[in-house]
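The instructor's notes for this session suggest beginning with a concrete chain rather than abstract definitions. Hand out the sequence below and ask the class to guess, before any prediction is shown, which regions might be ordered.
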Amino acid sequence: MEEQKLVAVPFALVGIFVTDKPVEESIRTDMTPEELEKLQELLARFLFKEGVRVAIYPSVVPPEQAQDAVKELEQLIFGEGEEG
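After discussion, reveal the predicted structure:
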């Protein structure tokens, strides 16, 4: 049986949200692991073809900090060794 080689490719979703509250009061901080898993499943199903898995790091960052957020996610995924 041939071993499957997985490749992780960073991606970003860009959007805006509109609020009349301070930004800190507009972002949920109580997302459950189950909600995060469901969101990842929805993104995978609607954005990608079958067989693609999605891992997300839900965070709202200014554009100048986006690259650092992607690096942090990459470290979360690969920092403790590769799993296949």
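Then share the key points. The radius of gyration is 15 Å. Helices lie at 33-47, 66-78.
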